[in-house]
Design a protein that fits this description.
By secondary structure, the protein is an alpha+beta fold. It has a single domain, classed as Alpha-Beta Complex (tt1808, chain A), CATH 3.90.1570. The protein is built from three helices and twelve strands, in the order αββαβββββαβββββ. A six-stranded mixed β-sheet has the order 3-6-7-8-9-10, sandwiched between helices. Strands 1-2 form a two-stranded antiparallel ribbon. Strand 4 and strand 5 form a beta hairpin.
């Protein structure tokens, strides 16, 4: 009896989702531990706080569950993603095109990944809005209108302290002074 052929992408993604570590992600085939600092977590908390009322009003949920990029060796654990409430009940990974925004906050160890690889991949996989909070540059950049070659609309980089207008359906000004 022949054994079924192994699917390396699926096996690697399964391993990442079932690791004993707190949080890891798969970036271009490399397993990367995620160890956020207090400054990083504080920025995410401030974003969640501002988005919370509008997210609940729209029947959405905010979290940091896995986002799968099928056909690639990528499984991202975004700092924050907003998704429809029904999808937030799933145990598995979601697709980036199901997010309302996806938010990444840079750290010294992962800044280039957030600025380049993740920006490109989120666009390729249809994430409608990508907010990059760059703590090293002290700026926020909003990317929207995804395409195969990248986002076609870029607003920023805006220095911290400048409100960033999030598009529909959130349609709110994100205050960035505390980042």
């Amino acid at each position: 009896m022949a054994m079924p052929e192994a699917d390396p992408e699926r096996a690697l993604k399964y391993a990442v989702q079932h690791t004993a570590a707190d949080r890891v992600e798969l970036v271009e085939g490399v397993i990367v531990p995620v160890s956020p600092s207090w400054a990083h977590e504080s920025a995410i908390d401030l974003i969640r706080e501002q988005l919370g009322p509008r997210v609940r009003e729209l029947g959405l949920r905010a979290g940091s569950g896995y986002l799968d990029l099928p056909g690639t060796s990528n499984l991202y654990a975004p700092d924050l993603a907003v998704v429809p409430a029904g999808l937030a009940q799933t145990e598995g990974a979601l697709l980036p095109d199901r997010t309302v925004p996806v938010v990444e906050v840079t750290s010294p160890s992962n800044g280039e990944t957030d600025r380049t690889a993740k920006r490109r991949r989120y666009s390729q996989f249809g994430a409608p809005v990508y907010l990059l909070v760059d703590q090293q540059e002290r700026t926020c950049t909003l990317f929207s209108r995804p395409g195969r070659l990248g986002y076609t609309r870029v607003e920023g980089p805006h220095p911290f302290g400048t409100p960033v207008r999030l598009p529909e359906p959130l349609a709110l000004d994100l205050h960035t002074g505390g980042f």
